[in-house]
DNA sequence: CGATGTTTAGTTAACC
DNA sequence: GGTTAACTAAACATCG
């Protein structure tokens, strides 16, 4: 039986699960993360089947995003306002498909409670940073308002303190690779300081993590926000972690695979 | 208000 | 037959 090509799917339902479709969409984007609307667009652009009954499959897709730990909701950067968050893949979920084939999933990806708590704390800190950022910017008092940053937690404190009910292995409380987790306090002031030069233990850094920001002369706040966001994403999508999703044959969407 | 996100629950199919 | 993953439906909350 011949391999199905992108075209041959036509109005037929593609053999991919929603998880696979979503992973495709996310990993085909330059920054490895997309808002919901862009995930929709990726799917409808490539698979005509999903141009019908959008209510049904989009509900299922949203359900999958929320239900599965393999998808991580990253708050929008404050300089990119809009509706909804960005969605990315959890680094530990990269190998959830057998042999990298998106046609077959190895097992359900589930985070332990400690890992989940840790990640949520990290993301909550980011959201908090964003809110403070906006408030501060609205206040128009650069460098003074909200100084001290007592409302923020340091990443170290956040990630190294296991919850009482956490008994798992050594890395359960440290979701993000320790080398790339943000090293400074999650405060605007700290982030406004010049970037400390440190060589990443993993090389080279993936290009998508340094997107260009189409902004006219970013203010220091914007720079701080960008830096913060980049650090978090660098942790989430570490270059040490293997492979990137790709497709071997760009004309055949049936064969998304992992680089090896 | 509509898009987005969360949660629960029922059905189906594949697998051991 | 039990377990698991995928799919679907639906209720509900939140947010811009």
TrEMBL record:
UniProt keywords, alphabetically:
DNA-binding, Nucleus, Transcription, Transcription regulation
MF terms from GO for this chain are:
DNA-binding transcription factor activity, RNA polymerase II-specific; RNA polymerase II cis-regulatory region sequence-specific DNA binding
Read off the Gene3D superfamilies from this record.
Answer: Winged helix-like DNA-binding domain superfamily/Winged helix DNA-binding domain (1.10.10.10)
Any Gene Ontology biological process = anatomical structure morphogenesis
Q: Which residues bind DNA?
A: 13-107
The record's GO CC annotations read: nucleus
Name its cellular compartments. Nucleus
Main subcellular localisation: nucleus
| Function text | Involved in development during embryogenesis.
Q: What is this protein called?
A: Fork-head domain-containing protein
């Amino acid at each position: 039986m011949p391999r199905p090509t992108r075209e041959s799917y036509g109005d037929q339902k593609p053999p991919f699960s929603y998880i696979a479709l979503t992973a495709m969409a996310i990993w085909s984007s330059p920054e490895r993360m997309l808002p919901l609307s862009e995930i929709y667009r990726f799917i409808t652009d490539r698979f005509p089947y999903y141009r019908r009954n959008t209510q049904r499959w989009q509900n299922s897709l949203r359900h999958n995003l929320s239900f599965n730990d393999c998808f991580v909701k990253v708050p929008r950067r404050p300089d990119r306002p809009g509706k909804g968050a960005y969605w990315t893949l959890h680094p530990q979920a990269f190998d959830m498909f057998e042999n990298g084939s998106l046609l077959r999933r190895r097992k359900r990806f589930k985070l332990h409670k400690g890992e989940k708590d840790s990640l949520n704390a990290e993301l909550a800190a980011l959201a908090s940073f964003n809110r403070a950022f906006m408030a501060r910017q609205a206040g128009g008092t650069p460098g003074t308002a909200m100084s001290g940053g007592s409302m923020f937690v340091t990443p170290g404190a956040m990630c190294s303190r296991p919850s009482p009910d956490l008994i798992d292995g050594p890395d359960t409380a440290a979701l993000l690779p320790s080398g790339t987790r943000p090293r400074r306090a999650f405060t605007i002031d700290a982030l406004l300081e010049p970037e400390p030069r440190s060589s990443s233990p993993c090389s080279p850094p993936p290009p998508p993590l340094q997107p260009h920001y189409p902004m006219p002369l970013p203010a220091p706040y914007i720079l701080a926000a960008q830096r913060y966001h980049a650090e978090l994403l660098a942790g989430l999508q570490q270059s040490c972690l293997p492979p990137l999703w790709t497709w071997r044959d760009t004309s055949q969407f049936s064969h998304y695979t992992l680089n090896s």
